[in-house]
Amino acid sequence: MTRNNYHNNNDNHDSLSHAASRACKHIDIGTAVLPQPLQAESLYAATLQREFNAIVVEHDLKWGPLLGEGQNDLNDIKCLGQYDFTQADIVVNWALQHDKKVKGHVLVWHVTSPPCLQQLTAEQLREHLQRHIYTVMGYFRGRIRTWDVVNEALAPDGSLAENIFLQKLGPSYIEKCFRWAHQADPDAVLLYNDNKVEAIDTPKGDAFYHLLADLKAKQVPIHGCGMQGHFNAAGTGRNRPPTPRMLKQQIRRLGDLGLTVNLSEVDVRTSRLENPVLETVAQKQIYHDLVVAALSEPSCDGIWLWGFSDKHTWVSHFYYDDQPLIFDEDYQQKPSYYALREAIASFGVGSVVGNGVLLEEDVNVHGNTWGHEWMQPEPEDEIC
Ligand code: G3I
A Pfam family this protein belongs to (predicted)? Predict the structure, then answer.
């Protein structure tokens, strides 16, 4: 059943974080934050303060940026160890001053690691990687207690992604990073994060499960995982959004491993549906139904958006013009905002968990598949 008339009143008491505070379980409602708009735009800071109880630094806490990417030559190994925490501190200190939880993102990600690592021997790389984890976690110890330790180590087909760490240190680099992170701060909550892993019975979704099950079996100190949730309503094949059932079952089996699970980088692209009415329907349904499905599992403790206003979204820089978030460019609530708030509010004490969402099946009693109004058919050549 689809519900499209989410309630539209914008009094503070009904912010996302307020809805989360009234829930029958702990819910992090977080968002990625950039230091520039945080300092330059009062509406950005005010919306952040009102709506979210947690934040993650979108870019400036990664290895390359911490070494002064753009200012320093990161092809020169002399840059290693030359940390500048200024931009990251702006966001982290603002969050703590405003009583927000902070998640550290990300200690080990090949995309934003300094290119000079290529020049190192395997032993030198092992040393610098360990020192990087100790240095950054040491600097933020007591301020950041939850960390994305490793990000996107899996390739789209579920194999280990080819990157500098795999090439020089072998598959055990992931395990090593978690053990070093635990040594650096034994009280920290340590997470593995990846994309396109939200659906059960998919190559990458299954590889994600088996990677985590293997780490748990080896008693590696890992406490949870993040599934990014960069959803594309017009996606087909492995880019197709999961149904609530597929997401719920994926989270259930991860929870059965003793892990916490969060949706870590949610945004919902719709522009490729090329139909404004369908775009709104799809975005509302995804923000509502997939969030209900995720939070309906005990192990799911958080929903983190990858930004909150369409004014500041990586999608427009990386893909194409789109409006994937819940506030428009003027920080006005979009229909997707109310859909998300209703999803969180449906976990309020006394509410009916599930809020009418199809959680155990993909097809409802009328024979309609979830999302049938807007889901795109598989292109001919993808129907094998
Ligand atoms: O801050 C500088 C600005 O001063 C400069 O004028 C501008 C033009 O070069 O660049 C700005 O820095 C950009 C930064 O985003 C802030 O907007 C960097 O060039 C750009 O590389 C950086 O991209 C970030 C990317 O990760 C790399 O860190 C995106 O914002 C961020 O959304 C993206 O996030 C990743 C997650 O970490 C992992 N999962 C996928 C997700 C999307 O790619």
Answer: Glyco_hydro_10
Task: Name the residue with the closest Cα to ligand 1, atom 25.
Answer: 59
The model's pTM is: 0.96
> Any idea which residue has 């200690």 for tokens?
107
Mean pLDDT of all residues in the chain?
94
Nearest atom in ligand 1 to the alpha carbon of residue 105 is: 37
Q: What percentage of the chain reaches a pLDDT higher than 90?
A: 91
Phi-psi region of 229 (alpha: psi -120 to 50; beta: other; left: phi over 0): left
Q: Which two tokens stand for residue 326?
A: 């819940």
Q: Is residue 265 annotated as a catalytic residue, yes or no? A: yes
Which is the closest atom of ligand 1 to the Cα of 35? 1
pLDDT at 382: 53
Pocket probe for ligand 1: among 59, 154, 315, the residue whose CB has the most ligand atoms within 8 Å is 59
pLDDT at 288: 97
Of all protein residues, the one whose alpha carbon is nearest to atom 15 of ligand 1 is 59
Q: Is residue 3 predicted with pLDDT exceeding 70?
A: no
d(CA 371, CA 129): 44
CA of 59 to the centre of ligand 1 (A): 5
Residue 159 above 80 pLDDT? Answer: yes
Pocket test for ligand 1, best of 197, 314, 315, 319 (most atoms within 8 A of CB): 314
Taking only the tens place, the pLDDT of each residue in 166-222 is 999 999 999 999 999 999 999 999 999 999 999 999 999 999 999 999 999 999 999
Pick the CATH number of 20-366 from 3.40.50.1820, 3.20.20.80, 3.30.390.10, 1.10.579.10: 3.20.20.80
Cβ burial 121-137 (10 Å sphere, 16+ → b, else e): eeeebbebbbebbebbb
